[in-house]
């Protein structure tokens, strides 16, 4: 299941990269994050991190932008950790809200790392606009995951926390 | 049938308000520190363009005299053409001249943009023309375009 979701995340990342960015360079909806978040909810957090790493590394290499790994991977790991902490540790934050927070954090962290690595501090001026696009992307991802979880039969949810009868 | 742990797997929880409020405040602060304050501080006018690759100056351009100053190290890698009031500068990134970025300088509006590149990501070509500061950066080629004589903080998002 982890491999399937990782593959889906990678493929959606590649397809999304074929489209022009949203309003700003580097701004994307982050559709692939649907499968990462889904991994964390229906399987476990470890699988989500594996899927994230596979998606970022393979996706960046296959889209011809290996440089992106430098800022995408740390930002992705950081934002996913915070998202999972919000969802599973507090248990009082909805998926949609955690997704929005994670998306905003992700674009901001990516922007900061990009500026540090490329020595282009002026790019920080894009961070408020990128954060706004992050809200849009986070909402789309959050709603999508919510709808999938809502419609997915409980038997397919592997994670013990959400399913008393572990099937795999 | 939903289990007890599925409580937060819903569209909205009361605690979300706090998180959303935090996001709004954080974005407002980002606008304040990166857009509003720098815009008030900036009062210098754009006088020219600086293009760098891997931290080394490729060429500089001044709007007043329409003059280029191409660095010796890059003289074989830069081609300049002029049509009407627009300069088109092609910067090659390898000796075979198979990797290139095309920079368009509009002398009428004093703007510069990356009009073409053959790298696979091509993100820099989606950036709006620089007119009042900001930078355009092509990550795969480490090529940076910035304006001279400006604080360089105003991002080119309004076109």
Tell me about the largest β-sheet of chain A.
none
Helix content of chain A: 55-70%
- Strand composition percent of chain A: under 5%
Strand neighbour order, sheet with most strands of chain B: 3-2-1-9-8
Assembly type: heterodimer
| Separate helix tally of chain B | 1
Low-confidence parts of chain B, pLDDT < 50 over ≥5 residues?
A: 1-5
Task: Please provide a written account of the structure.
The complex is a heterodimer of chains A (168) and B (159). Chain A is an all-alpha fold. Chain A has helices at 2-17, 33-42, 45-62, 68-90, 95-118, 127-151. The longest helix of chain A is centred in the last third of the chain and has 25 residues, at 127-151. Chain A is globular. The termini of chain A are close together. The relative contact order of chain A is 0.16. With 159 residues, chain B is an alpha+beta fold. Helix content of chain B is 16%, strand content 34%. Chain B is built from 1 helix and 9 strands. Chain B has one helix at residues 16-41; strands at 48-53, 56-62, 67-70, 78-83, 86-92, 100-106, 111-117, 135-138, 143-148. In chain B, the strands form 2 sheets. Chain B has a 5-stranded antiparallel β-sheet with strand order 3-2-1-9-8, with no helix packed on it. Chain B starts with 15 loop residues before the first helix and ends in an 11-residue tail after the last strand.
Summarize the structure.
With 168 residues, chain A is mainly α. Chain A is 69% helix and 0% strand. Residues 164-168 of chain A have low confidence and may be disordered.
Sum up the structure in keywords.
heterodimer; A: mainly alpha; B: alpha+beta; 5-stranded antiparallel β-sheet; 4-stranded antiparallel β-sheet; elongated; disordered N terminus
Write the layout of secondary structure elements.
The complex is a heterodimer of chains A (168) and B (159).
Chain A: H1 2-17, H2 33-42, H3 45-62, H4 68-90, H5 95-118, H6 127-151
Chain B: H1 16-41, E1 48-53, E2 56-62, E3 67-70, E4 78-83, E5 86-92, E6 100-106, E7 111-117, E8 135-138, E9 143-148
